[in-house]
From TrEMBL, chains A, B, C, D, E, F:
<dbReference type="InterPro" id="IPR052186">
    <property type="entry name" value="Hydantoin_racemase-like"/>
</dbReference>
<comment type="similarity">
    <text>Belongs to the HyuE racemase family.</text>
</comment>
<dbReference type="Pfam" id="PF01177">
    <property type="entry name" value="Asp_Glu_race"/>
</dbReference>
<dbReference type="GO" id="GO:0047661">
    <property type="term" value="F:amino-acid racemase activity"/>
</dbReference>
<dbReference type="InterPro" id="IPR053714">
    <property type="entry name" value="Iso_Racemase_Enz_sf"/>
</dbReference>
<dbReference type="InterPro" id="IPR015942">
    <property type="entry name" value="Asp/Glu/hydantoin_racemase"/>
</dbReference>
<protein>
    <submittedName>
        <fullName>Asp/Glu racemase</fullName>
    </submittedName>
</protein>
Length: 211, 211, 211, 211, 211, 211
C-alpha cells in the first residue's frame, strides 16, 4: 500500500487502519510513503505529479504480489497497472465498489469542494454515476481533516446531508486518512460507512490468497 | 455463507473454495446448505423459491456477523438485507464488482443460456451495464459443470470468445461451483478470472474485521 | 387480475377501477385475491412472500389468457412469466410505461418512503431512470391511503411537489388502491395522472383482443 | 387514428387492424387519411412535411377524445400534443413501450435501412436504448411490404436474425401496415410480436375509458 | 447562417455576433432571414413550421458550402441534412458540444420555461444528459431578452443559480440573440459562457476550410 | 498547439494540417514540440509522462490565448486546464465532439488495438458512449501510419468496417498525424472524416476570436 503523498503521518494512519486485516497466515501488508510525492494531494497537479513515480515504484518491486494506491483520486492507477503483472488497486475504486454492496445509492464525503468535479469525472469514467446519491465537501485541508478535533462533527453534519437530502444509503469517506472516524460516523448516521483503504486491502487479500 | 440449493456437494466445494480466506485471527467462515432449497438453482422459480427461506435463516441467526448468499442469481439478497442489521453479500454482486477492479470491461461465463436474460436484468438493476463486454453460456447443467471432465475445456473455449470477440479484460465465473477451475482458466486465458464466492468472502472480511 | 395481498377491500377496489374496461365483446376481467398473501405489501418480505404463490396460481389457471399482478412492486412478475405461455403484466411496469406516453418525465406518488429505494431499483432494472422526475411518499399506510379522508389532499400536496419541484409532467399513482383519486387528482394538478391498474388492463386487452 | 400518408389502402389496413378493439361500449375508432400527406413516409422530408398538417387536423377536431398518429416515425407527435388538451399517441412510442412488457430486450423490423438511424435517434430521445436488442431492415418499399407476397417470408428471416443474433425477446413491426402479418410471424418466431397500431389503440382506450 | 424566424433584428444581431469570424481568406458568412418563418420561435409549432421551408432553402442553394440553422431548438436540422451533401450545423448542438470542452457539466439559460422540456428531450436525443448540470429560464420573451435593458441582470441571476446550485462549470446561452451579453456574463459569473451561434460558425469553418 | 511527443516530423505535419486555419486576421497558430516528450505516445506510460511537462509549458506561456494538446489520448488535459486561465483543448475531445455534428454514431480509427481500452475509458469519462459505433485499429506504429505507403489503404479497409459493420456515419482519425489522409479517406468511404487537430483549432478559434 503506497501513500502517494510524502506525509508520513498519513502513512502511519494507513498502517493503523489496515492492521486488523494483517492476518498471520495472510499476505504481509506494507504501507510505505512515496518519497517523491507532494505533502498532500489536493489538486490535479498533485495527482498527476505522482503517476510516473508510482509507475517506477511498481516496476522496481520484485517481491510484491499486489499494489494499493492509497489516495482517493486513484492517481496513476492505469499506468501502474500497465507496468506490472500483479493486480493494482485504487482506494477510490474499491471504496465505491464496496459501497455498492451496502446500499442502492451512496454518498461521498470529500475534503474540499474543488475535488468534487475530479471525483465525478472519475465516477463517470467508471460507469457508476447511476448509483451516486451525491458528494459533499468538508471544506477542510487534508491535514485538518486527519488531525483536527472538529473533523468528526463536520463529517456527521455532511454525512447527514448526504443521507437526508441526497438519499444516500451508505457513505464513502473520500480520503485516505479518515479511517478512525469510520465507526463513530457509522454510529451517528445509522447507515454503513466505508473506509476506502480497508475496502481496498480486503479486495486485495481476496485476490492474493486464492491464487 | 449459505448455499441456497440443497446439493451438499456444492456446499463442500464452497468450503474448499473459501478455505484459504479462513484466517485464524479472522472471522470464522461457516458454509451451510439451505435445507429447503432445490437441488440446483437454474430457473427463476428456483431462485424465488429460496428467498423467504433465506430470510428465515438470516432472522434465526443470532451469532452471525455477515451473511453471504452463494448463488450467482443473488436470490433473496434484498429481503435478507431487510431482515438483519448485519451486512448481506451476494456472490454475483461481489464477483462483478471485483471484476471492475481488474479490467475496463468484463465477461461472464454462464452455465446455461436461459440464465443470461436474468443476469442481464440484474446487471441493469445494479447500473453496471456500461462495463459488460458480454455473457456467454457453457450450456451445461450445474451438476455437469461442477464435476464433468470437459468443463474446463468448455470454459476455456467460452472464455476465449468473451476475450477475443467481446473484448472482455476479465472473466467472472457465473456460478457458485466453479472455484477449482479459476486458476487453470486464468492461465489459459491470460486475463484475470474472478471466482464470485471468494470475492464475496473477501469483501465480507473487510466489512467485519474493521468493525 | 390478481391482488397479491389478502385484503378483499383492495380487490373490490380493483373491480371498480377496471370495470369501465370490461367490454361486453372484450375479455372477461376477473379480479381475485391471493389467499396466501399478506394483508398489505409494504416490505420486501411481503413482496417476496407472494412470488411462489403467484406462480402456483398462474400455473393452475387453464382458462386465463393473460394475467395482471396488481401490486405496485410487481412481485413475482418474472417467475410468473416463466410459468405460463400467456402474457403476464405488472401494474408498476404498465403504469410507468403509460406515463411515458403522456409526458417527458414522470413522478411517482409512493405510499411510504421505505418503498422508494425498492421502486428506484426496479426502475433502474427496467432501464427507465432517464425519464424519472422524482418519487415522493405520502407516508401513509396502504389502508389509510385507500380509505382515509385526507388521502386526496395529501396526494395533491405530494403531486404538486413532484410537478413544481421535480418537473414531473405526469404522475403515476404508486399503489393498486388509489384509482378513485385519479380524476380529482388530475384536475387539481392539471397534468395527466395514471392509475397503474387501469393502464395494465388496457395493455392486456390490446394483447388479447388481437390474437 | 390518422394515417399521415395519403395512401387509402394503408388507412383501410389500419381499420382492419384495430377493428377488434372497437367495442360497442368503448370509444368509436375512426381511421382517416391525412389528405396533405405524401403517398408513403420513407424519408425525414416525408415525416416533417406532415407535422403542421397533423397539428391543423388535431386543432380542427372538436369531438375527438384522443388522437393516434399512425406512422412508425411518430411525425408531429410533440407539435400535435402542444395543440390539444386531448392525449395524442404515436404508434412507434406505444409499440416499443408495449414490447417492454413482453421481453427484456426487443428488436424492430424496419422497412428500409435508411430509416434505422432516424428510429435509433428517436429511441435515444425516449431514453429506451438500454432495452433495444437491434433493428434490422426488410429492404422493401412500404408498398411492397404491405402487399407483396414474399413479405412474410422476409419478415420471418429478419425476425429470426433479431432473435438469434441480437437476442431480441420480442419483436416490434416497425410500420403501420404490417398488422396482418403479426400472428403468423409470432407463430413462426415463437416470441411475442407487437403491431404498433394495435398497441396504440389499446393504450388510448385505457386513457379514454376511465376518464 | 439562416435565422429561421422572420425577425430581421435577430438576423442583424447574428451578423454582428459572427462578424469576428468572417476572415478575409476564410469562408464568406451570409446571415439571412427565413421569409416564411414566424416572428419568433417559442413553441413546438413555431419550430415545426420552419422545417420544410428550411429544407427548401437548403435545396435551392447551389453555392453554399455549409449551412447553420440559427435557432436554439435546431428546427429542421435532420431534414436539412437529408436535403444536401453539404454539412448542416445547428446552434444548439454546436453550443452544447463546445461547452463540453470547457467544463465537466454545463448549464443552459433558456428564455422561457416552456422550452425546457423540448430542450431536455433534444439533449437526451443527443445522448448528452450525463453532462447537463441544469437548465433554468429567464422567463422573458425572445424580443425582451434581445433588447430589454434588464436582460443582462436577469442572465447573471439565472447563471449564478446554474453555477452555485446546479454545479455548472460553463454556461450555454440558449438563444440565437444573446451574443452581446456573452462577455459581460462571463465576467460576472467567472466561468466560460458559450454563444451558440459563434460556436456553430467556428465548427463550420473547421469543416469548410480544410476540405 | 503542443505536440506532446518529441517527433519533429509529427509537429511539422500538424503545421501543415492546420495551416488553412491560420487566417491573417485570426489568431496566430504556433505548433511546437514538447522537448521532454517520448518519441511517440503509444502507452499509458507515454501519456502520463507528459502531463507535468505540459503543465509546466502551459504555466510558462504568458502570451498564449489558448492551448491545444495534440495527441489523441488528450494527456494532461485536466492538469493543464488547472494551470491556466486560458482555455485548453484536447484533440480527442474536439474530434469526437465535431463528429457528433456530422452523424448519429461515429467510428474511430486507432493506430493500435492496445490504445482502444484507454480511448473507451476516456469516452465513458466524457459521457459519450451512446454515440460510439465502434473503434477499430490499423495495427501500425505511429511512425508507419504517418509515413507508410499502405496507410491509406489500411485506413480505407478499417473505415469501411466501421461504416458497414458497426454503423458509423462519420469517422474520427484517432491520431494527430493523419491529416493528409482525411480527404482521400472521406472520398473513399462516402461519409465525413474528422481530423481531430483541425477540429480542435477550429473550436479554439471560435473561443478566441469572439472574446
Amino acid at each position: 500500500m503506497i501513500n502517494p503523498n510524502s506525509n508520513e503521518a498519513v502513512t502511519e494512519g494507513l498502517r493503523q487502519a489496515v492492521a486488523p486485516l494483517a492476518f498471520a497466515e495472510g499476505p504481509e501488508i506494507i504501507c510505505e510513503t512515496l518519497r517523491d510525492g507532494p505533502f498532500g494531494i489536493e489538486t490535479q497537479e498533485h495527482a498527476d505529479s505522482v503517476t510516473i513515480p508510482l509507475r517506477r515504484r511498481v516496476e522496481a518491486a520484485d517481491d510484491v504480489d499486489a499494489f494499493i494506491i492509497a489516495c482517493y483520486s486513484d492517481p496513476g492507477l492505469h499506468v501502474a497497472r500497465e507496468g506490472t503483472a500483479s493486480p493494482v488497486f485504487g482506494i477510490a475504486e474499491c471504496g465505491v465498489l464496496t459501497a455498492l454492496t451496502r446500499a442502492d445509492r451512496f454518498g461521498v464525503i470529500a475534503i474540499k469542494s474543488r475535488s468534487i468535479p475530479r471525483h465525478i469525472r472519475y465516477l463517470r469514467q467508471m460507469g457508476l454515476m447511476d448509483r451516486l446519491a451525491g458528494e459533499r465537501p468538508l471544506e477542510m485541508s487534508v491535514a485538518e481533516s486527519a488531525s483536527g478535533e472538529g473533523t468528526l462533527d463536520r463529517m456527521i453534519a455532511v454525512g447527514t446531508e448526504l443521507k437526508e437530502r441526497d438519499g444516500a444509503g451508505a457513505i464513502v469517506m473520500g480520503c485516505a486518512g479518515m479511517a478512525r472516524h469510520r465507526r463513530p460516523l457509522e454510529q451517528a448516521l445509522g447507515i454503513p460507512v466505508i473506509d476506502p483503504t480497508q475496502a481496498a486491502v480486503a479486495m486485495a487479500i481476496g485476490t492474493l490468497v486464492v491464487r
